[in-house]
Amino acid sequence: MQGATVTFEVEHLLFIRPDVAAVKVRQVHRNPDGTEEVGTPLFVMAKEDGQWRLTACQNAGVLSSD
C-alpha cells in the first residue's frame, strides 16, 4: 500500500544453537490514514553459508484491550 510503513523491533532473541535463533519482534504497520496495526511475529533464523536466513515465521495480530 502506497504511503504505508512497517517497522520491526527485536524484543527477544534466543540462540537454540550457534547457527539457529528464535527472534520475537514487535511489528508496527502504519497505514496512510495514520492508523496502526501491531503484530508479534516469531522468526526462526538459520545461518547458512555465513548468512542468516529466515527459515520459519509465525505472525499473530495483537488484540486491543479496549
UniProtKB/TrEMBL annotation:
InterPro entries linked to this entry: NTF2-like_dom_sf
SUPFAM superfamilies: NTF2-like
Protein name: DUF4440 domain-containing protein
Lineage of origin: Bacteria, Bacillati, Actinomycetota, Actinomycetes, Streptosporangiales
